[in-house]
């Protein structure tokens, strides 16, 4: 079975290669003529890594060359994001970038800014949700916010490092609700897993992370997802209300995952990958894979993706300034 | 766990494709693990694309068996070449390498494989019974409890630093200091990075481990006309493996001599392993420390004594399977390997969570049974590996040293695919060489490097929750008990030192028992 599966994959790859060689004219045949590296700024096994590997294996089938995923981790994504921007702009190094790439500059971290990339396309965007402990004294977002309003310091929230997106989503919401973000207690953690552990053990009250990551704890009756910090409902969780519906706020920080390359990559290469990415996101197999992990498929072409990144960068910088986090 | 579920799960595991996946994963894991510097995490990550084409259980079985095998096989380069495979195996690398230098390499490796397999089997057995319950208990641990456990782990340093605990303490603090390099997770501030982008990512313990243990050993071999036998000396007048034993010879006798060590190591490993994030790495260190404390012959530790090796290595593998429990029951992965496994499970439409146990209990049971089979495979594959390892010992020194050097470079490059890792390895090797020449043990550096971030992040998290009130560490019942225990250990240690200092006549006894 295993070997059968493997050889099926390899056969598909070969077929894709042959098909490409047969149909592609000489002008198209120049890229890719060797393996392409795809840098992922987050560790193997995480959500970004899983989606990046799925995209890379589909690109491999389409172009008939290996697309090798390389995890370059550290510094809250800074190391990998810089590595993408600083790679040679020959089209043989691409990368998967996440929303953190828009925040380093405002945090005063040198190395990379949104202007350092050639954008190729977005394939995923999922809103952040508010998750509370199942035995909290309130059972919806209004109750939670009332408690926070009474004493902002008493409600401990977590989900990422200080200044991480999870943090900004939470304090950005408080800011819009006229609660002093600086007074709220944020427990810096190394990602959502340790934060969820803290929530389940009763040490903290709120975790702002994607509903997919909290799903198991919600099923276990240990946690409850009460709202999405977003202006639009999610297709994957149609029953979850948004903070815009509940509070009438205008705050929708949307974490994204997309393909980018170093600045100055030839336009025809960008065009080819952009088209391929569009086809991948329309592929039912890919959509099924994404849905199985609780990730939505949200394609944007290169121009739209760049615009989204720019506006998100500005919004987040404003949120960081209001919370006193900007440098 | 009803017998019917067990039987049904057994039927699932005993299918050809599952067994093939376990065998394939084990052989693959053996290769990756035996290559110095390549880790179980790397082995698992490389398997992910392959799992796309497999059914759910074979896919998970592949990951389970390759991890179990890679972690156990990581002890091979540790024992032969002094390159520990995992931070956990750094706890007992000195011990097994000392045995190799004495000519007991086969025995050291046999202990590694046999007691890893035994620990793994007992651990998996315990999980079958207590799995979901253990998960429920582990969920009650917050940063307050993790902080105390990390302190307890640091105290184990006193026990692994041999005859000079003060120098051991210096090494430990050095490790903790190095672990503070990089972006601080609380505020995102760069610390000790000197503007270097690479340093912002922190200093990874793999290149440090390779450098401190393996590269420093090469430096020592080059610089000193040291006549102590070590691997590779076999080409001279004296065979490296004088006792030329068969693999697993005399191991049963060891088991009968130290049954308590196996039992303690396994239960420590199985319970600590279930704590997400800290358990796996801590278990072997604490087990080694506990073994030294309760041993009748603590003075023999660190010089190639079997007892600590047995206890630590069985704890290591027992913890391996229980690390999967919080991941399977609550979807909270404790380490990179289980994080990847959780991803694969989702991809296969098997969402981890309590519903998995309620609606489909055969699946988690089958996964634990895969651990069983994989650990059973450690016996025959271990036998082959040990036979092959003897060939390594027969390789002449002028051939093996360049090969170790290549492994050092490859392993430290592969960790993040940069030359920066190689530079770290070289610097760590030089530092390790200088430290050892001056009597500073190096194992505590690795302990400090691994536990430093655990200690810091859990301390900061706790302080943020308690709003700066130190009494918060005693607010929660479990945390209070752990805290009082840790403080008692420290206080008693200091008291006994003072007592000994006041009665100088009795202070000449070699003092290795630090946890009183």
Please specify the SSE layout and strand pairing.
The complex is a heterodimer of chains A (327) and B (516).
Chain A: H1 2-23, E1 36-40, H2 47-63, E2 67-71, H3 78-86, E3 93-98, E4 117-125, E5 128-133, H4 141-150, E6 156-158, H5 165-176, E7 185-187, H6 192-200, E8 206-209, H7 211-219, E9 223-229, H8 243-247, E10 256-262, H9 267-282, H10 284-292, E11 300-301, H11 302-322
Parallel strand pairs in A: 1-2, 1-3, 6-7, 6-8
Antiparallel strand pairs in A: 3-10, 4-10, 4-11, 5-8, 5-9
Chain B: H1 3-13, H2 16-34, H3 40-51, H4 56-73, H5 75-81, H6 93-101, H7 105-138, H8 143-160, H9 165-179, E1 182-183, E2 190-191, H10 197-200, H11 205-223, H12 251-257, H13 259-273, H14 279-294, H15 306-322, H16 324-330, H17 336-347, H18 354-359, H19 362-394, H20 397-414, H21 419-437, H22 443-465, H23 477-502
Antiparallel strand pairs in B: 1-2
Helix pairs in contact in B: 1-19, 2-4, 2-19, 3-4, 3-17, 4-17, 4-19, 5-6, 5-7, 6-7, 7-13, 7-15, 7-16, 7-19, 8-9, 8-14, 8-22, 8-23, 9-22, 11-20, 11-21, 11-22, 13-14, 13-15, 14-15, 20-21
